[in-house]
Design a protein that fits this description.
- Belongs to the short-chain dehydrogenases/reductases (SDR) family.
- It holds the Pfam family adh_short.
- This is 3-oxoacyl-ACP reductase FabG.
- It comes from Terriglobus albidus.
- The chain has one domain: NAD(P)-binding Rossmann-like Domain (Rossmann fold, 3-Layer(aba) Sandwich).
- 45% of the residues lie in helices and 15% in strands.
- Strands 3-2-1-4-5-6-7 form a seven-stranded parallel β-sheet, with helices on both faces.
- The relative contact order is 0.14.
Length: 249
Amino acid sequence: MENSLTGKPLYGRTALITGGSRGIGRAIALRFAEAGCAVAINYLHAKDEAEEAVSMITTQGGNAIAVQADVSREGDVQHLVSVSEEALGPIDILVNNAGILHRVPLQDLDLAEWNYTIQVNLTSSFLMSQTVLAGMRRRKWGRLIFLSSIAAQTGGVVGPHYAASKAGMLGLMHSYASLLVKEGITSNAIAPALIDTDMIRKGTAVQPDLIPMGRFGTSDEIAQAALFLATTEYVTGQTINLNGGWYPS
C-alpha cells in the first residue's frame, strides 16, 4: 500500500539486492530507491559500478550503500546482511539476483562447472534467504524475489548446468511460498528470456530474432516486475514470465 505521507510505496522499507551493481540488479535497485526504499547493493568485483549506483541514488535524496560479498559463501552472506542492516535497518525485501552464465558445450560440461554454477546461482539464494528470513518472520512482513530464467522451463541455450540452477530457484521459491504464506511473507520469481545486459552479450552468441517479439528485453522491464512483487500483498508462489512471447513449453 502506498505511504500517504510520501507518495512512495516502499517508503520505510529496506531492500538487499545481490549482484546489484550492473544490469538487472542495478535497474531494480534504482527502481526501488525511486519508490522510497533504502537499498543495499551487493557486488563481488564491480566496486566502481556499485558505488556509482549508490551515488545515483543518494544524489536524488535516497539512501543506499554498496557492500562487497561473495554470496555463495556463508560467511560473506552473514557479513553482507549484518553490514546492510546496521547501516539501513532490517531487511524487508531480498532480491536474489546474483548469478553467472557460462555457456559450455555439452561434451565439455564437467562436474567442476556444474558445482560452481549451482553454488553461485542456487546455493547463494538459499543462503541469503535463510539469513534474512528470521527477521522477516519476527516482523511478520517480507518479500523474497528470485531472478530465475526461461531456461528453467525450456532448457534454454546455455546448458544443463545453468538450466538446473535456475529451475532449482523456482523450487526454492515455491517451498518458501508454501511454508510462509500465513506469516506476511511472499515468495515469487521472475523468469526473463534474453535481457540486454553484459551477461547476455558476453556469455552467449544468441540474437534478438530468437525472441518472437524480435528484441531483447530491458533491465527496466524486469525492474518494473520486481517492484510489483515488492509492493503486492496477494501474490505468492508465482513466476512472472518476461520473455517476449517465447512461452515455456
